[in-house]
Amino acid sequence: MKKIILISIMTISLMGMSLFSADYKDAVPVLKVMTTSLEEFILSMEKAEDAKGIVSALDNYSKAVVEFAPDVRKMMKKYPELKDETTHPELLKPFTKKMEDLAKKLMKLFGKMAKYGDDPEVKEANKRWQKAMSSLKEKEKKEEETKEKEE
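Request: output the structure for the sequence above.
Response:
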Protein backbone atom coordinates (compact mmCIF):
# COMPACT_ATOMS: atom_id res chain seq x y z
CA MET A 1 0.00 0.00 0.00
CA LYS A 2 2.87 2.38 0.82
CA LYS A 3 4.40 1.79 -2.59
CA ILE A 4 1.13 2.52 -4.39
CA ILE A 5 0.60 5.70 -2.40
CA LEU A 6 4.16 6.87 -3.00
CA ILE A 7 3.95 6.16 -6.73
CA SER A 8 0.61 7.93 -6.92
CA ILE A 9 1.89 11.01 -5.12
CA MET A 10 4.99 11.09 -7.29
CA THR A 11 2.84 10.80 -10.43
CA ILE A 12 0.65 13.68 -9.36
CA SER A 13 3.69 15.69 -8.27
CA LEU A 14 5.43 15.16 -11.59
CA MET A 15 2.30 16.02 -13.51
CA GLY A 16 1.80 19.09 -11.39
CA MET A 17 5.41 20.16 -11.74
CA SER A 18 5.14 19.64 -15.47
CA LEU A 19 2.22 22.01 -15.73
CA PHE A 20 3.55 25.12 -14.01
CA SER A 21 5.48 27.79 -15.87
CA ALA A 22 4.99 31.40 -16.93
CA ASP A 23 4.64 30.03 -20.46
CA TYR A 24 1.95 27.62 -19.37
CA LYS A 25 -0.60 29.90 -17.76
CA ASP A 26 -3.52 27.79 -18.92
CA ALA A 27 -2.23 25.02 -16.67
CA VAL A 28 -2.34 27.07 -13.47
CA PRO A 29 -6.03 26.35 -12.71
CA VAL A 30 -5.37 22.62 -13.09
CA LEU A 31 -2.34 22.89 -10.85
CA LYS A 32 -4.37 24.68 -8.19
CA VAL A 33 -7.05 22.01 -8.21
CA MET A 34 -4.46 19.25 -7.96
CA THR A 35 -2.64 20.90 -5.09
CA THR A 36 -5.80 21.83 -3.22
CA SER A 37 -7.19 18.32 -3.63
CA LEU A 38 -4.02 16.77 -2.24
CA GLU A 39 -3.98 19.21 0.68
CA GLU A 40 -7.63 18.43 1.47
CA PHE A 41 -6.90 14.71 1.30
CA ILE A 42 -4.03 15.04 3.73
CA LEU A 43 -6.11 17.16 6.13
CA SER A 44 -8.94 14.63 5.97
CA MET A 45 -6.53 11.79 6.68
CA GLU A 46 -5.01 13.68 9.60
CA LYS A 47 -8.48 14.30 11.08
CA ALA A 48 -9.71 10.74 10.51
CA GLU A 49 -10.29 9.03 13.85
CA ASP A 50 -11.68 5.76 12.61
CA ALA A 51 -12.16 3.59 9.53
CA LYS A 52 -15.15 5.68 8.45
CA GLY A 53 -12.94 8.80 8.36
CA ILE A 54 -10.31 6.99 6.29
CA VAL A 55 -12.98 5.80 3.84
CA SER A 56 -14.36 9.32 3.52
CA ALA A 57 -10.90 10.81 2.88
CA LEU A 58 -10.02 8.17 0.28
CA ASP A 59 -13.37 8.47 -1.49
CA ASN A 60 -13.30 12.26 -1.61
CA TYR A 61 -9.79 12.29 -3.00
CA SER A 62 -10.65 9.57 -5.53
CA LYS A 63 -13.55 11.69 -6.79
CA ALA A 64 -11.28 14.73 -7.06
CA VAL A 65 -8.67 12.78 -9.04
CA VAL A 66 -11.31 11.50 -11.45
CA GLU A 67 -12.54 15.08 -11.92
CA PHE A 68 -9.16 16.69 -12.58
CA ALA A 69 -7.62 13.80 -14.52
CA PRO A 70 -8.99 14.87 -17.94
CA ASP A 71 -7.54 18.35 -17.49
CA VAL A 72 -4.19 16.92 -16.44
CA ARG A 73 -4.13 14.66 -19.48
CA LYS A 74 -4.98 17.60 -21.77
CA MET A 75 -2.12 19.64 -20.33
CA MET A 76 0.32 16.76 -20.61
CA LYS A 77 -0.75 16.23 -24.18
CA LYS A 78 -0.35 19.93 -24.94
CA TYR A 79 3.07 20.13 -23.24
CA PRO A 80 4.66 16.69 -23.68
CA GLU A 81 8.15 18.16 -23.38
CA LEU A 82 7.51 18.72 -19.69
CA LYS A 83 7.34 15.01 -18.92
CA ASP A 84 11.12 15.21 -18.65
CA GLU A 85 12.01 16.68 -15.25
CA THR A 86 15.28 18.08 -16.58
CA THR A 87 13.37 20.52 -18.80
CA HIS A 88 11.36 22.15 -16.03
CA PRO A 89 11.90 25.89 -15.69
CA GLU A 90 13.17 27.63 -12.54
CA LEU A 91 9.62 28.74 -11.74
CA LEU A 92 8.82 25.16 -10.70
CA LYS A 93 11.00 25.24 -7.61
CA PRO A 94 8.38 26.69 -5.23
CA PHE A 95 5.79 24.20 -6.45
CA THR A 96 8.26 21.35 -6.26
CA LYS A 97 8.95 22.25 -2.62
CA LYS A 98 5.24 22.38 -1.81
CA MET A 99 4.61 18.98 -3.37
CA GLU A 100 7.62 17.50 -1.56
CA ASP A 101 6.23 18.85 1.72
CA LEU A 102 2.80 17.39 0.99
CA ALA A 103 4.33 14.03 0.08
CA LYS A 104 6.21 14.00 3.41
CA LYS A 105 2.99 14.71 5.28
CA LEU A 106 1.23 11.93 3.44
CA MET A 107 4.07 9.49 4.18
CA LYS A 108 3.54 10.15 7.89
CA LEU A 109 -0.07 9.01 7.52
CA PHE A 110 0.82 5.48 6.36
CA GLY A 111 0.58 4.18 9.92
CA LYS A 112 -2.92 5.54 10.28
CA MET A 113 -3.96 3.97 7.00
CA ALA A 114 -2.37 0.67 7.96
CA LYS A 115 -4.16 0.71 11.32
CA TYR A 116 -7.48 0.43 9.49
CA GLY A 117 -6.18 -1.48 6.48
CA ASP A 118 -8.01 -4.69 7.36
CA ASP A 119 -11.38 -2.99 7.57
CA PRO A 120 -13.53 -4.17 4.62
CA GLU A 121 -14.80 -0.65 3.85
CA VAL A 122 -11.27 0.75 3.92
CA LYS A 123 -10.13 -2.02 1.59
CA GLU A 124 -12.90 -1.14 -0.87
CA ALA A 125 -12.18 2.59 -0.62
CA ASN A 126 -8.50 1.86 -1.19
CA LYS A 127 -9.39 -0.09 -4.35
CA ARG A 128 -11.46 2.85 -5.61
CA TRP A 129 -8.58 5.20 -4.85
CA GLN A 130 -6.07 2.96 -6.64
CA LYS A 131 -8.38 2.77 -9.65
CA ALA A 132 -8.71 6.57 -9.73
CA MET A 133 -4.95 7.03 -9.51
CA SER A 134 -4.18 4.39 -12.12
CA SER A 135 -6.72 5.92 -14.48
CA LEU A 136 -4.41 8.90 -14.89
CA LYS A 137 -1.95 6.71 -16.74
CA GLU A 138 -4.35 4.16 -18.22
CA LYS A 139 -6.47 6.72 -20.00
CA GLU A 140 -3.36 8.50 -21.25
CA LYS A 141 -2.06 5.23 -22.64
CA LYS A 142 -5.44 4.39 -24.21
CA GLU A 143 -5.59 7.85 -25.80
CA GLU A 144 -2.12 7.35 -27.29
CA GLU A 145 -3.11 3.93 -28.64
CA THR A 146 -6.28 5.37 -30.18
CA LYS A 147 -4.29 8.20 -31.78
CA GLU A 148 -1.78 5.73 -33.23
CA LYS A 149 -4.61 3.65 -34.72
CA GLU A 150 -6.14 6.76 -36.29
CA GLU A 151 -2.85 7.68 -37.94
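DSSP finds six helices and no strands in the chain.
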